[in-house]
Every structure is written in structure tokens, then in C-alpha cells.
Amino acid sequence: MGTGHRDKHLCYCLDYRSSLIAKAVETRKDRHTVWNWAAELWIVPHHIPGSVYEPLKSINLPRPDNETLWDKLDHYYRIVKSTLLLYQSPTTGLFPTKTCGGDQKAKIQDSLYCAAGAWALALAYRRIDDDKGRTHELEHSAIKCMRGILYCYMRQADKVQQFKQDPRPTTCLHSVFNVHTGDELLSYEEYGHLQINAVSLYLLYLVEMISSGLQIVYNTDEVSFIQNLVFCVERVYRVPDFGVWERGSKYNNGSTELHSSSVGLAKAALEAINGFNLFGNQGCSWSVIFVDLDAHNRNRQTLCSLLPRESRSHNTDAALLPCISYPAFALDDEVLFSQTLDKVVRKLKGKYGFKRFLRDGYRTSLEDPNRSYYRPAEIKLFDGIECEFPIFFLYMMIDGVFRGNPEQVQEYQNLLTPVLHQTTEGYPVVPKYYYVPADFVEYEKNNPGSQKRFPSNCGRDGKLFLWGQALYIIAKLLADELISPKDIDPVQRYVPLQNQRNVSMRFSNQGPLENDLVVHVALIAESQRLQVFLNTYGIQTQTPQQVEPIQIWPQQELVKAYLYLGINEKLGLSGRPDRPIGCLGTSKIYRILGKTVVCYPIIFDLSDFYMSQDVLLLIDDIKNALQFIKQYWKMHGRPLFLVLIREDNIRGSRFNPILDMLAALKKGIIGGVKVHVDRLQTLISGAVVEQLDFLRISDTEELPEFKSFEELEPPKHSKVKRQSSTPSAPELEQQLDVNISEWKDKPTYEILQKLNDCSCLASQAILLGILLKREGPNFITKEGTVSDHIERIYRRAGSKKLWSVVRRAASLLSKVVDSLAPSITNVLVQGKQVTLGAFGHEEEVISNPLSPRVIKNIIYYKCNTHDEREAVIQQELVIHIGWIISNNPELFSGMLKIRIGWIIPVSAVLAVKLYPEHFRLLVFVEVGLAVSDHLVPYLRPLLFSVEWATLSPRHSSH
């Protein structure tokens, strides 16, 4: 519409009271003045002429003093019927995103809040004995919506199965459905469906509503499906998504990011649903939901690292309000809560509402509605003219009620009143946003806050903003004390600090105020002869046979048991993905098929990455694990930590550190952690017992087989000897008689002959590497297949501490350390980027968390260009850097990018300077990698010694 035509249309909209303005237009009066006068009379030009709302002038009219409870509730019932339930689909129960124009889209998040609004009013009606059926109507309107969402989700069970195995934007559940049929709408190319916050919000409201007495889940098919939704949500800490605003990066270029709001909602949902019975009071053991505590804790750590930022590109965001306050209450750190909230209010609060985030172009006059994505640097155009959303005044009102702050409630109620409107029937309406018209943009940019903003109305944004309408009902019911916070938060997501000691739930993020936890420790010896040997030093241990009938399992067997959790053949859903169990999970006792089972942590697992074969690192990992458990264990009952001692651990010079650690455990404190060492049978009474009832096996089903840890049977008359754990001088000086460049082109039969004649493990590893690339892993050698032969060399070299051979074998077997993806995430959430790749060659820049599969592909594609060992060395560096940056982030201040491949040549030079005594026998043929091969015990202190930001001008810039 042209400017002149718009001014003429303005004249037609004016009534007799605005004749002066009409005359001004006809006489070509200053347009800026005309629009301001029009705004004073609430004449609102927009994309489509005329506003569908009238200003709400009677919202604060005094009500009769003798108004009954029925009259109060009847007022809100009429609002809910006219502004919410009128638009609910009679078939699916979903709510449309737009309420006019025949739009068929229903977004999960909007529908959830609408269901919550109806449910909140139903809770208020429970106070009236004769409610004329309104409680039933409102409750079942909420149930219908929740079941409609579940119906839409279950029709996409194949996507759930794909996503939990490989979370990607093209395998996720849809977030937009047809409001009447439940069909999925919009392709992955047309819309950013990856919004884990919506799935988390669904799980959270599902728990809240069932806890209030609603029956939403009907059968075990639905239980198993919801359990699989939990599997998807558990890994949110490393799944970048499009966030609450469906745009991903602040730059709106189609890229995803890790969002604090999504991680926080996931954390809250996992805490609420863990151990929850979906059948409510009528439930049984088959309807209980299980949550991986270690996955939950990674979400908690990631959230605390990201906050007070929303994401890498968002400094702050109004989406954090529902995350840190109602409905999620995801934070239990009051200081971090205050920092985050203050930042949101300080940067985003306006006269008409809160901006979503700074430089948000959504629905501004300068945004091009015909383009989905912005051009580079286009967001600068929107600086200072972002739309303001009144809905966040409602969030702040609700937050004030929960926190017992009536001044905050009154403050935001006073701010809300002028921006509310009313329908033609007189019911209050919350506009979706307020915008600055195009003619006012320059005036607003030159003098921020000087121009009047106009509300959204009919057109592409719909007649009513149902999310705002629902939240208005909840806020007003709370402010008028028609419901209490306990009514709409029956699982007590929000608990004031002074009451946290009294929380009694199966699992709760609300731990005690002072966590002075004592960790129970049981010492398990690998063999009876090792037990006798340790007993001579005053260390009392038990063998696996001595703890019977209790079984000791490696964590892989527990993973195997969890594979049966959530299986549903009708829906095509497998059980829990094959993910390792962390040290929180292994600190519980399990009842499985009538057996009592305890598990030792993954750090003692020989099938794990070779780093666990070094005793000094193992001791360090044990201390870190105990500190981790002390800090993050929030369950009733004490954690049980099994220390598995192997004969290989006490050989040579490493025996004294092991003995010192065992002595510290016996004294009752290690690494600042209080411990209590005792017999396993004694410690069980105070531990947490988890019943794995999902392993229900009928008479016709075959029992799953589980292998417990078996006691080592040594040869007769053998004794434990403290053999050297470091290579002797002859082993170190053993000359390689094989050169890769010389042998890679020789025929296979010559390589096999050389392999049979060679006794040097390093030479054998090189020859097997050539055969592996040429003939494949199943090629037969004298000692079996190539892959089996390499595996044996890997074990033998590990026992002899020949780290160069170990690394080469590990790389040939493409081994990957289990905690690689979380370690990279630890770096990313600190605002850093990570690069993987060989120094001087092409590197891969990582800005968002990746799955272990993708990281493995990058490492073995980018890092093996120079030397095979570099792929595993870079994994070691990532693990150590992830640990250091989590505990000492200040060491990395001033850096934007951490180049893992660059550290190896730098560490070679520094290692010689810092630890010259360890390299006397080293022949520097391949300087960087050769030195790194001997850095396992010294890598962590070496990294601490590196002055990252001052190495050189070139390094410091990264």
C-alpha cells in the first residue's frame, strides 16, 4: 500500500472525534505528527487495514465486594470458552496457531500452553462442590489436547527410532501438525522442526497433569513410546536445535545451535519424569519411566556452563524465562538464576513487553516476509526496533507469585494493563507483539523509546495469540489467589531454598543445602592371590566369590539389560540405545531378574580406551569420579563406588601410587572426598536400589544371558610379583627393522613372511597396518584375522606400556574413547571452537556438539594424513582439555579457538624442557609424535604448564 493511499485510508477510519486529524492529512500535514495523533486514538494501521481489537479500558473496573467464588471463576470460564476452547479442534484436540483465515497449522508448544490454561481453571473449579460439570469439561479439554499431541507423535514412531540413534534435524519429530487430522505439515527444508524444547515441555506437563489426578496415558504401548521420548531428550546437551523461536542461530541463516532454554527444559523434564508412574495412582511397575542419571547430569552441567547466555550467538533471550522460572524451574543455583534473570530484564524489557532477543527482526517493518533466511549482517537493520512481546509480562507475574514477591506481581500487572485489548464481546486479549511502523523506524532508531508501537492484529499473525491467552488465564488465577503454586506445580518443580531439605521424591534436583556426602567404597581384588598380597600391606579386600550371592557386573552388562527398556515391536521401537552407563548410574544397586547386582565404573573396564591402562591416570580418574559423585549425587541413600584392583595395577613403579591411594581410602578421605570403606554386604543396606522391572520375562520367552565379573584363576603355586610397568632400556632401544615407505609396496607374501619372523611389536603393528589397508580386516595371518592379530598386539603392548605401539594399534582398530563427545561439548559450552586435524593440513572446525559417530569420522579422516597415531593422540588431548576447561575455565580466557592438532608439536618442545629426565633414551626421529608417545603420565600437568594465550602472536589470536 503506498504512503499516500495509506494516509487516505486513515481518513476513512476516523470518526467524528478525529476530524482534526483528517483535516491535517488533507492539508498534507507532517505525516509523523498524523500517525502519532492516530496512535493516541488507537487507530492502528497495519499490513491489513484496521485493528480487530479495542483498547481494554475496563480491565481494572472494581468488582462487587461480595463477589462469590463462583462469580470469580465464572468470569474466567467465559474468557476461556471464548478465547481458547472455541478454537480447539473437535477431532485431535489441538489448538491452531492462527485463529482466522482458515489456517490449519497447530504447533506443539502453543497447544501445550492452551491445555495448561484449561487445566489451571479446572484446578480452581475443584474448590467448588457443585461446579455444574465445568471441572470435568475443562480437565478433559486438557486431556484431549495432551492425547492429541501423543497421537501425532506416535504416528512418527519411526522418526523417534531414528533420532534416538542419530539425532539430526532430518530425523526429528515434527513440531507442526494439521490441527484437525494430526498429519505432519511442512518438510524439513521448509521449517525447522528440531525443537527439543517442545518435546521436553510435553513431558513436563504430562507429569504435572497426571500428578494432579488426570488420566492421560492408557496402555503400555504409550508407556514404551514415552520412554523412547525420554531417550531422545536425554542427549539434548549435545544436540543443537532451532530453539523456542524456530530460527536456530540469531543470524537466521538456517543453522542450529545449542540453546540454554532447550537444555534447561530437558533437564527439568528428566527430573520430573524419572521414576514417575504414567498410570498415576492406578499404576504398576510396568508403567514407570527410567532416566539415565548421568545423561541428566550432563544436561545440568551444560546448562550451568551456557548460562547466563542463551547460545553461542544469543547473548540473552526471553526464552530463558520459562526455562529458569515457570514452568520448568530448571535452576537450583540461586546466584545463577539472579544473574540470568537480571540480564534478561536489563537488556530486553520494554514499555510494551520484552524483546525476544537483541536484533530480532521477527515481524519488524524492515523484515522481508518473502524470505525465510536473512542475508549476512542483515540483523543490524533491526537494531533498536525489535518487536516487544507482552506475554513476558505474564511470565514475570507468575514468577512473582511463585517466589512470594507481590511487588513484582503488581509491577508487571501495571505494565500489562495498558497493552491489553478486548474483543467485541469485551473479553481481554493479549496482543502477540507490538511493532514500530515503517514510517517511525528512523525516529525510533535516532531516539530509542520515543515512538509509539502498534499491536499485531488480524492478518498473517491470526486474530488471537492463544499462547498469550492461556498464560493470561494462569497468571490471573494465581494473582487472584484462585489457585496456588502447589496446584499447578504438584511435583514441586519450584521449592524455596528454606524448604529444600524437606523434599522427598524418588529423584530431585533439590539436594540438601550443604552436600557433605560420604561415599561408600568397596575394594574388590581381581584374584585371591592379589587379595593375600594386599593383605600383607594392611589393605582388606574381597574377591568376586566372597561377595556372592551379590553379582559384580561390568557396566556393559548393565547396558545390555537396559536394551530391553522401552521395546515395542508394534511401533518399531528398540530399547535404550547402546550408551555407556556413567559413574552415577554405577553407584546404585540393581535388582535384575531376582538377582542383586552391583557394577564397577567404566574407568576399570579393560575394553575401554587404552588410557585406563596407565595407573597414574587411573588413580587420577578414581579421584575425579569420587569428587564428581560427591558433588552431583542428589538421591536419598549413599552412592556405592566399587574399586576394582587388577594384578597388572601393582606391577613395578606404579605399585607405590596405588598403595598410597588405597591407604587414603582406608583413612576415610581422598581428594577432599569423605569415603567409608567396608565389606560390600555391609554397605548395601544404605545404598539406593533400582528395580529393573521392565525385564519381565514370560514362561515362553528366553532368558537374557548376562556375564558377571569372574575371579581370575592364576596358575598353581604362582605368586604376585611387582614387575616393571615401564619398558626396559633394551625394549626402548629395540630398533625398528621395518619402514613404512619401504614395505608398503612389497608383495603380501613377503609381508606375511616378515611378520612371522619378526619379534618386535612395533614392527608387527606396522606390517599389520599395511595388510589391513591392502587386504582388509578379515585377511588371515598365522595368528588369525588381521583385526584379531592387531587386537592381541594392542593388549600385549598395553601390558608392557609401549605407548607408541598401543597408539598405532588403537588407531588401526579405529578405537574411540567413550567420553569424547561430552568432552568436546564441555569446550563448546564455554564459548570456544575446536579444530581437529593434523598440523599443517586441513582442519575441521567444530562449533556445535556432534555425535560420537560424526566425531569418529572426522578424526580418522582428518588426522591420519601424517601418522596413524595422531588420531588417538588427539582424542587424548580432547579428553584432557575437556576436563581442564570444566574445572579451570580461566586458563582458556582470551581464546576463541582451540587447535588440537597444533598442540602436539608445541607439546614436544615443552615436554623436553619440562621433563628432560623422561626422554634420555628417546631417539627423535619423528619429533612431535615420538615425544607424545611417552606423554601419557605427564600430559595433564603439561597442559597446565602451557601458557596458552602467550605462546606467540599467531597462537594467541586463536
TrEMBL record:
It is found in: Cell membrane. Pathway: Glycan biosynthesis; glycogen metabolism. GO terms for cellular component: phosphorylase kinase complex; plasma membrane. InterPro entries: 6-hairpin_glycosidase_sf, GH15-like, PHK_A/B_su. Pfam families: Glyco_hydro_15 (PF00723). It comes from the Eukaryota. It is a lipid-anchor. One of its GO terms (biological process) is glycogen metabolic process. Phosphorylase b kinase catalyzes the phosphorylation of serine in certain substrates, including troponin I. Belongs to the phosphorylase b kinase regulatory chain family. Hexadecamer of 4 heterotetramers, each composed of alpha, beta, gamma, and delta subunits. Alpha (PHKA1 or PHKA2) and beta (PHKB) are regulatory subunits, gamma (PHKG1 or PHKG2) is the catalytic subunit, and delta is calmodulin. This is Phosphorylase b kinase regulatory subunit. The lineage of its organism: Eukaryota, Metazoa, Chordata, Craniata, Vertebrata. The gene is PHKB.
